[in-house]
Write a structure and sequence with these properties.
10 helices; Glutamine Phosphoribosylpyrophosphate, subunit 1, domain 1; globular
Length: about 425
């Protein structure tokens, strides 16, 4: 539920960061903070509670502070307090980090860093990542074994070395006081988007923090990083392989994410349901011929005619609606037996082969972004196989179990995007 916003451009960074964090309030948080480069040093300000509490302690924006990072935290490691809030400095005070995700091996890394003389002030896994980057950054002046490759500077090299040691998930935005015009982002399992404006860049975990400034963006994939300077940006793998990314259009407007006079987002969404339903059905209702047109599955009609079982997945009230309505509709239209209740629940069991469905099954899922947690390569393989049995026009979700043994099962969920090369998993979540 955490949020990241970072800015590099020609405008004062502070108001852009604060406004971006407000756009992410719907995600939930218990503390917030920002960090700026200030005359060769890093200035960090953090607060517990609402973003308004952070605003109350901030000074007037400095015109020369055009680079900064911000964060809203939902406590996972350590209680919600100012010390545990992000951003986190490393032990040298030269590196500052904001982080979404969970570093699963942070305890091991923390003990090792402490044995190397590194001290800690918080209970968080994020400070471990910050100190690990700082540790490698300090090694860049230690000899030939610690020299960056051609085309790299020490800051970039240190980030790459550190994140290769991390297990789990992360979305990072990172600054270094020795590089006052460089912003680095890195992603594994936790969303990270770079918005490209006019002479400015906004790095965020959610497009909601970007659309006020630009609708042009690139989406980092897992194990990718971006190095941003006033002259442009470069995308690489964490193993220092340069890659190119396609520029994409953010397909929603600022008005769609603002409260619009409502007290909170839930109330706004309730009142938006009629218009959302109308928008959803546009182009899918042929009123003249009294038909429903579902273009996304038109190419799969032959497979659908021999389908023996439909599996619907959802969560919250969507799950309730699906469980109540879909069996009756399927029976009325096609005479199909009611699917077993377990297969209509969020975390239905997979088959003996670990795949939730066969070639005679169709899995309908709801397209939606999700919170992401770390998964193993085996679990990734299961989800990739399961995606072959889904039919949709763009995005879909798929559930699978990492084990056929109920006592040892780990139910997984993925958001998958259909590409020319086939299904591509873009988000993953461990459900239990």
């Amino acid at each position: 539920m955490c949020g990241i916003v970072a800015y590099l451009g020609k405008k004062p960074a502070q108001p852009i960061l604060v406004e971006g964090l407000k756009r992410l309030e719907y995600r939930g948080y218990d503390s917030s903070g920002v960090a700026f480069l200030d005359n060769g040093s890093i200035r960090v300000q953090k607060s517990v509670g609402r973003i308004s509490a952070l605003e109350a302690i901030l000074n007037e924006p400095e015109p020369e502070q055009t680079l900064g990072i911000g964060h809203t935290r939902w406590a996972t490691h350590g209680e919600p307090n100012t010390t545990n809030a992000h951003p986190h400095l490393d032990y040298s005070g030269k590196i500052v980090v904001v982080h979404n995700g969970i570093v699963e091996n942070y305890t091991t890394l923390k003990k090792w860093l402490e044995s190397e003389g590194v001290s800690f002030v918080s209970d968080t896994d994020t400070e471990v990542a910050a100190n690990l980057i700082g540790y490698f950054y300090g090694k860049t002046c230690g000899g030939a074994d610690h020299k960056p490759s051609d085309g790299q500077h020490e800051f970039e090299w240190a980030v790459q070395q550190a994140i290769q040691e991390l297990q789990g998930t992360y979305g990072f935005a990172i600054l270094c006081s020795d590089f006052p015009d460089v912003l680095i982002g890195a992603k594994k399992g936790s969303p990270l988007i770079l918005g490209l404006g006019s002479d400015e860049y906004i790095l965020a975990s959610d497009a909601a923090a970007i659309v006020e400034h630009t609708t042009q963006a690139i989406y980092l994939a897992d194990n990718e990083m971006v190095i941003i300077t006033p002259d442009g940006f470069q995308t690489k793998t964490i193993n220092n392989v340069t890659i190119s990314k396609d520029l994409e259009q953010i397909e929603f407007s600022l008005e769609q994410i603002e409260l619009g006079g409502f007290e909170h987002h839930m109330l706004k969404e309730i009142f938006e349901q009629p218009s959302a339903l109308r928008t959803c059905m546009q182009g899918r209702l042929d009123l003249q011929n009294n038909k429903i047109v579902l273009g996304g599955i038109a190419a799969h009609l032959r497979e659908l005619t021999r389908t023996k079982k439909f599996i619907f997945t959802a969560c919250g009230t969507d799950r309730l609606n699906i469980n109540t309505v879909s069996p009756a509709i399927l029976n009325a239209l096609g005479g199909l037996d009611d699917p077993p209740a377990a297969q209509l629940l969020l975390s239905h069991r997979a088959g003996p082969d670990g795949v939730p469905g066969t070639e005679d099954d169709v899995i309908f899922t709801r397209p939606e972004d999700i919170t992401i947690q770390g998964l193993t390569e085996t679990q990734l393989s299961i989800l990739q196989d399961a995606s072959k049995f889904c039919f949709t026009s763009d995005y879909f979700r798929i559930h699978a179990s990492a084990s056929s043994d109920r006592s040892a099962s780990c139910t997984l969920m993925a958001t998958v995007r259909m590409t020319e090369e086939g299904p591509s998993i873009i988000c993953l979540e461990r459900l239990q």
